[in-house]
Amino acid sequence: MRHLLAVALCAQIILVGYVFAATTESGLGFSYNMEQKVQGNGFNNAYLNAAALKISLSNKGHGSGSYNYESKLKIIDGAMFDDITGMSTIVSDRNITLQENADFSYATVGFYMGKSFRWGGFRSLGREEICLKNFGAGVSMNAILDHVDTLSKNIYADIYWKEANSSEESGSIIERRAKSNLDVDAAFTGKVHFGAFIFGKDMKKSDMFLDEDYLGAYSLSKKMSYESSSKLDQVEDDWVPCCSGGFADMNPRDAADFKSAKGIFDCTCFKPAQSS
């Protein structure tokens, strides 16, 4: 009898431990950092594409002549999962930032290939292009400097997306936050284009559209910023509510025509018992 009691007690302890057990998992993403400095004369060509869930940044350029360049890039792709019996939380946190400074002056660059090759040279006017896309918020921004003879620029780009999903037996909460920033300070001789696009709620037409072009010798500053946040609370009703006590908070969708709930769960069919 004592052995049976001990076995039952152990089983109860194990069950309690299982009910209140929690699972936490993090570190599912990555973090990337890069710093670089480039200085010299010749031909340069560079392409960068950085992406995480819901966000992306591309940066590319080329040209021949004198080039002085510095940049800092940081990518954070993080996720966290927390599970307790009856309740769970999933957090997705993504961020890309780029800061760069460049001075460029166009010139023809010649190279001697040896006696067996005809020597030639590179003649490439400068081009610099950056594009930010936040797919979670439906936002796109870009800046293009093309056919550049001289250029001095400072650029800062920042894209952020976060989504947190918490659920339990009574319902769930979804929170989202998005941010996009593009700052450009430039003095140049050539052509520049600025563009920005923000989708509407139905993702079929834009809430904002920007298209600008400048050709010549300019000094300009452009700062574009977007930020949004949302919170969605979803409450789950009981599967079969009790009608005898009334059901005043009936879901309107269940009260629509051709729904079997109408006349049953809205208590119009309920008739109290008659006293004899």
Q: Count the strands?
A: 10
User: Segments where pLDDT lies below 50 for 5+ residues?
Assistant: 1-21
The portion of residues assigned to helices is under 10%
Helix/strand class = mainly beta
Q: What is the H-and-E element order? A: HEEEEEEEEEE
* Distinct helical segment count: 1
What would you say this structure looks like, in words?
This protein is mainly β and 276 residues long. The chain folds into two domains: 19-235, no CATH class; 239-276, no CATH class. Helix content is 7%, strand content 66%. It has one helix and ten strands. The chain has one helix at 2-19, and strands at residues 22-26, 30-52, 55-84, 87-106, 109-111, 120-122, 126-134, 139-168, 171-199, 206-235. Strands 1, 2, 3, 4, 7, 8, 9 and 10 form an eight-stranded antiparallel beta sheet that branches. Strands 5-6 form a two-stranded antiparallel sheet. A hairpin with a 2-residue loop joins strand 2 (30-52) and strand 3. The longest helix has 18 residues, at 2-19. It is elongated and about 110 Å long. 19% of the residues are buried. Residues 1-21 have low confidence and may be disordered.
